[in-house]
Amino acid sequence: MTDTACAVCDLLDSRAAGHALAADLRAGLGGAVPDAVIVFASAQHDYERLLAALAERSGCERIAGASSAGEFSNGSMGTGRVSAMAIRSGAMRFRVGLGEAVATDARGAARRVAAAFSGLQRDGAASHHSALVMADALAGHTEAMIDELTLATGGNYSFFGGGAGDDGAFRKTHVFAGTKAYSDAVVALEILSERPIGIGAAHGWQDAGLPMRVTEADGMRLVSLNGAPAVDAFADHAAATGQRFDRGDPMPFFLHNVIGIRSRSQYRLRVPLGVHEDGSIACAAAVEGGSVVCLMRTSEASAIEAAQRATRAALAAMGGQRVGAALVFDCVATRLRMGRAFEQELRGCGRLLAPAPFVGCNTYGQIVRAEGQFGGFHNCTAVVCTLPA
Q1: What pLDDT was estimated at residue 120?
Q2: What does the alpha-carbon distance between residue 161 and residue 73 come to, in Å, rounded to a whole number?
Q3: 159 membership: H or E segment, kind and range
Q4: Which residues contact 342 (CB under 8 A, 6 or more apart)?
Q5: Chain-centre distance of CA 1, in angstroms?
Q6: Rounded to a whole number, what is the largest CA-CA distance in the chain?
Q7: Strand order in the sheet with 382-388
Q8: Is the pLDDT of residue 1 over 90?
Q9: Is the pLDDT score of 125 beyond 90?
Q10: Nearest to 360 by CA among 315, 329, 314
Q11: How buried is residue 91: exposed, middle or buried, by Cβ count under 10 Å (0-12/13-18/19+)?
Q12: What's this model's pTM, rounded to 2 decimal places?
């Protein structure tokens, strides 16, 4: 039997918010102490004050989560808030793993996370191994870290989650482990379950131009495409499609024209963030040199339908099990592009998940590695995880 409770709080006093969330979560569990708590919080909060208050009143210090860039539930969406889920289960076991120094040793950080996983130490303890993974994506190397985490766990774990946010400022983000907040780090909540956990991912973007070769890239900086400064490709695309592109203020264009990295029949997305003086493009995640990319287009309807596809995929992976609650992630760029229409995306997910509740947040990139899903680190992608009742 698994019980879950979801809550969202608008209070900006961090201690009061922690106490209020704990009260709501305990009430949702019939007064019981949770086995684990997942929490996402706006950059307006004092994270450690919030986490300490949440642990104090909930009775649980097995806490994992991250700062965020928009927080929501099946009932509402907004910014400057905290969203949380509490889980109490006789069919699941949880552990929190933390890896620091992602910027200088991403692979080592992943190994330190995996070292905390009990599923690697006890054979046969549970038939389904997964983990919520939240990373400081501003530290870079998230893709490499997910690859190393897959290797360190022998490919026996499914992963879902995203990059921590800071309300769209892109200055400093944090992940949460227990009552502490860390930058330049990754945290994972290991979930060992006797029953299936569903994970689904999808985006609604399509290629909108000719394929181009990445002739030079440096981590999250896209330097050149087809031998020319990367910015030229964006300017040319804007002219060809009748859009306005301002190098001094490129975000209005970038939100509607992202980079798609071609991979078999899928595209992994990267959001451009700015233009450097040398004509290179700052991106929200690394673009590999030598890869083939296209500029991509989407619509509100496509984004809404993609989130529903992700939800259906997560539900299908449950194998007919009843859903107790869900976690939903989508990119901050999606929320900024869609505005209030983002509520329609959440309502679509809610209708498919009903009567199960969900909570989630907008992230700086999305993490997914699960059977039947295109794995790795993504931008502008909806990720849904369904937990059994």
Answers
A1: 81
A2: 16
A3: strand 158-163
A4: 77, 330, 334, 335
A5: 27
A6: 63
A7: 77-78, 71-73, 358-363, 323-331, 382-388, 198-202
A8: no
A9: no
A10: 329
A11: middle
A12: 0.95
Which residues make beta-bridge pairs with 295? 259
The average pLDDT across 10-25 equals 98
Give backbone dihedrals phi and psi of 331, rounded to 5 degrees, phi first: -75, 145
Other beta carbons within 10 angstroms of residue 70's beta carbon come to 26
Antiparallel, parallel or unpaired: β 259-263 and 292-297: antiparallel
The count of residues in the chain is 389
Q: Measuring CA to CA, how many Å separate 364 from each of 23, 154, 202, 312, 341? A: 29, 27, 16, 23, 19
pLDDT (average), residues 221-227: 97
State whether the Cα torsion 62-64-67-73 is positive or negative: negative
Contact between residue 121 and residue 33 where contact means Cβ atoms under 8 Å apart: no
Q: From 93, 96, 149, 95, select the one nearest 124 (Cα to Cα).
A: 93
Average pLDDT over residues 270-290: 94
Q: Which residue has the tokens 């939240």?
A: 134
pLDDT at 264 over 80: no
Q: What's the mean pLDDT when you consider all of the chain?
A: 95
Cα–Cα distances in angstroms (integers) from residue 255 to residues 239, 250, 305, in the given order: 17, 9, 18
Torsion region of 346: left, alpha or beta (phi above 0 gives left; psi -120 to 50 gives alpha): alpha
Phi-psi region of 124 (alpha: psi -120 to 50; beta: other; left: phi over 0): left
Q: Output the CA torsion sign for 75, 77, 80, 83.
A: positive
The two tokens of residue 12 are 């900006």
